[in-house]
């Protein structure tokens, strides 16, 4: 029942998921809060596995991505299979591991880590171009890091999306804290009549609605 409710909420509130679910192609749903990966065909779950996600300082990128390459035995530490994602600010993917005890933990450099036997079951279901939707809070409540110029990551995406919703940011939520993001932060801080730093700290996260 809880899974059914989760899928309904995703289709209602997460961008592009209804379009993904409306066809019968396979897509992947990664839930950071529950630390699971589910392969679905349309809105029908096929298989689900536990995963490890990014650590405090290397959060897993939430958003709508797609698989851009597949590889067997991609390299040391990446296990027996690798599915690369089109995240614009770094090399992220879904892969196996030589540390199976880490599954279920915040343990990776941002990738989705699976047991080798699990990704070997998932691998044949996934093609190049398969959509991947990553949802949830990639951070523990204590791990919001300060954001400033030239940083990259999933936390930058969240701030960009929130500033866009408030009308301050006009660019793409690309996860890169560049000039346009810094300017949006400054303009937002100016309207709040607080110190204009162009940076995001704890009080700014709170003011943006993050806890």
UniProtKB/TrEMBL annotation:
SUPFAM superfamilies documented for this protein: L,D-transpeptidase catalytic domain-like, PGBD-like
Pathway participation: Cell wall biogenesis; peptidoglycan biosynthesis
Molecular function as annotated in GO: glycosyltransferase activity; peptidoglycan L,D-transpeptidase activity
Domain of life of the source: Bacteria
Signal peptide: 1-21
GO annotation, biological process: cell wall organization; peptidoglycan-protein cross-linking; regulation of cell shape
CDD domains tied to this protein: YkuD_like
InterPro entries: LD-transpeptidase (IPR050979), LD_TPept_cat_dom (IPR005490), Peptidoglycan-bd-like (IPR002477), PGBD-like_sf (IPR036365), PGBDSf (IPR036366), Transpep_catalytic_dom (IPR038063)
Active site: 95, 111
Stretches assigned to the L,D-TPase catalytic domain: 26-135
Record keyword Oxidoreductase present: no
TM spans (from-to): none
Keywords of this entry: Cell shape, Cell wall biogenesis/degradation, Glycosyltransferase, Hydrolase, Peptidoglycan synthesis, Signal, Transferase
Pfam families for the chain: PG_binding_1, YkuD
Record-level GO cellular component terms: extracellular region
Family as reported in the entry's similarity comment: Belongs to the YkuD family.
Name assigned to this protein: Putative peptidoglycan binding domain-containing protein
Species the sequence originates in: Carboxydocella sporoproducens DSM 16521
């Amino acid at each position: 029942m809880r899974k059914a409710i989760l899928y309904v909420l995703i289709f209602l509130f997460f961008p592009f998921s209804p379009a993904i679910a409306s066809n019968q192609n396979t897509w992947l749903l990664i839930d950071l809060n529950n630390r699971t990966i589910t392969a679905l065909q349309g809105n029908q779950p096929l298989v689900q596995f536990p995963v490890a996600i990014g650590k405090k300082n290397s959060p897993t990128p939430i958003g709508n991505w797609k698989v851009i390459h597949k590889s067997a035995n991609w390299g040391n530490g990446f296990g027996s299979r690798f599915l690369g994602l089109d995240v614009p600010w770094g090399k992220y993917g879904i892969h196996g591991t030589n540390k199976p005890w880490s599954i279920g933990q915040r343990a990776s450099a941002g990738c989705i880590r699976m047991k080798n036997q699990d990704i070997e079951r998932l691998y044949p279901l996934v093609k190049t171009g398969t959509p991947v939707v990553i949802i949830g809070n990639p951070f523990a409540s204590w791990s919001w890091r300060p954001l400033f110029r030239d940083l990259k990551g999933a936390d930058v995406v969240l701030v960009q999306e929130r500033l866009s919703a408030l009308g301050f940011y006009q660019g793409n939520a690309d996860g890169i804290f560049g000039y346009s993001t810094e300017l949006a932060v400054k303009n937002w801080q100016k309207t709040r009549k607080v110190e204009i730093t162009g940076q995001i700290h704890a009080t700014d996260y709170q003011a943006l609605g993050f806890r």
